[in-house]
């Protein structure tokens, strides 16, 4: 298990008070109920290349604020974000919410949990 620095955890905990978050086992149902929803993998490009949820679009946390409006200009688009474990996606969801996106959800548990719950692609697909 990855040990995160206390300052980082405080930042994530604060973001979680301002965002909507679901557990990984809720994602498939949520996506099936919203055909216009977008699943965003906010991990680094090498993490995404090593394997990701089938159908997920890559938009790394490092550039999401810069690039989201060009890709998804409608502020009401349902955006579901995941990372490795749910920390970076919480921070990215907070940033997008502050930018005016109204339907942003972070997936707690992230890729580590989703691998066993949803179809995946890439070298680690299973």
Structure explained in plain terms:
This protein is of the alpha/beta class. The protein has one domain (7-121): 3-Layer(aba) Sandwich (Oxidized Rhodanese, domain 1), CATH 3.40.250.10. The protein has helices at 6-16, 27-33, 45-50, 64-71, 87-98, 110-114, and strands at residues 20-23, 38-41, 52-53, 57-58, 79-82, 104-108, 120-121. Residues 33-123 form the Rhodanese domain. It comes from Abyssibacter profundi. InterPro entries: Rhodanese-like_dom, Rhodanese-like_dom_sf. Keywords: Transferase.
SSE topology:
Blueprint: H1 6-16, E1 20-23, H2 27-33, E2 38-41, H3 45-50, E3 52-53, E4 57-58, H4 64-71, E5 79-82, H5 87-98, E6 104-108, H6 110-114, E7 120-121
Parallel strand pairs: 1-6, 2-4, 2-5, 5-6
Antiparallel strand pairs: 3-7
Helix pairs in contact: 1-5
Brief descriptors of the model:
126 residues; alpha/beta; five-stranded parallel β-sheet; two-stranded antiparallel ribbon; 6 helices; globular; Sulfurtransferase; Rhodanese-like_dom_sf; transferase
């Amino acid at each position: 298990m990855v040990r995160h620095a206390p300052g980082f955890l405080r930042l994530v905990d604060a973001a979680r008070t301002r965002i909507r978050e679901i557990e990984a086992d809720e994602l498939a149902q949520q996506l099936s109920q919203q055909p216009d929803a977008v699943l965003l993998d906010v991990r680094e490009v090498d993490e995404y290349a090593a394997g990701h949820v089938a159908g997920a679009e890559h938009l790394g946390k490092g550039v999401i604020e810069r690039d989201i409006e060009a890709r998804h200009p409608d502020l009401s688009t349902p955006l579901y974000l995941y990372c490795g474990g749910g920390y970076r996606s919480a921070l990215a969801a907070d940033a997008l919410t502050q930018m005016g996106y109204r339907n942003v959800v972070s997936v707690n548990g992230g890729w580590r949990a989703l691998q066993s719950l949803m179809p995946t692609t890439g070298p680690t697909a299973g």
